[in-house]
Amino acid sequence: MTIFELKLFAVLFMVIDHIAMYFGRLAPLLTAAHFMRMIGRLSFPLFLFCLAQGYRHTRSRKRYLLRLYLMSLVMTGIMYCAGDSYGNHNIFLTMFWVGVLISLIELLQSDFRKGCIACFLFAAAQSAVIQLDGLLFPTLNGDITCGLLLNPHHCEYGLPYVILGVLMYFLWERRSEFCAMYIVFALLEFCNADVQFLIIFALPLMLRYNGERGRSMKWFFYLFYPAHTLLLYWLSTILAG
């Protein structure tokens, strides 16, 4: 299975999840909404996996990170304009942080001195961000300010999923360790009584990855995310009244 095919599965699961999110209170979906949201749990781990593989093979990591950052700003602007009822939709920011941490770790591995300096600057910048968050934007939703100030602590799915994406990158070549890590992560979600433990069912799809990219359609996946959430949000507001 190629990266393109895995992304198609991720998109399918995501759309099912978001349909339930926006229309779950309508009579036709009342009984199915919870099941649809359970299916949706498979989406983000697949996107993270595709990110990890794409980051490994991309020609320019700087451009890759720039695209993710710019798209995260687009989503931040949409969330600000649409309001709280739109929801928190900014997986681009989470993915951006996965890429940043991967680069920091690899810099530490290749040049420890430069890596330490980069980590120190990173920690200092994050400390400043946390302080500025409340000072500059005291009335804004945290989901919005984290996109403006690049605060990883409030990104979608949270810091644990940033770490999951990083581990996916570094453990994939050691398949048994990759599987063990992923299963433990899912079990931790189960212990938290969180439906997110259903991410475990994305693992068989990841293991079918054949190392090939497949068709690109890069911008389709970047643009489909904001487009479909805006469309579903707009339709839900019309139906609501």
Report what the structure shows.
- This protein is mainly α and 241 residues long.
- The protein has one domain.
- It has helices at residues 3-23, 33-40, 43-57, 61-82, 91-110, 112-136, 142-149, 159-171, 175-191, 203-207, 218-240.
- Helix 1 (3-23) runs antiparallel to helix 2, helix 3 (43-57) crosses helix 5 (91-110) and helix 8 (159-171) runs antiparallel to helix 9.
- The radius of gyration is 18 Å and the shape is globular.
- The termini are far apart.
- Main beta sheet, described? none
Number of helices: 11
Write the H/E string, N to C: HHHHHHHHHHH
> What sort of overall outline do the alpha carbons produce when their principal axes are compared?
globular
Ends distance? 43 Å
Helix content bin: over 70%
Rg estimate, integer Å: 18 Å
Runs in which pLDDT lies below 50 for 5 or more consecutive residues are none
Counted beta strands: 0
Share in β-strands: under 5%
**What's the mean pLDDT score?**
87
Domain module tally: 1
Structural class: mainly alpha
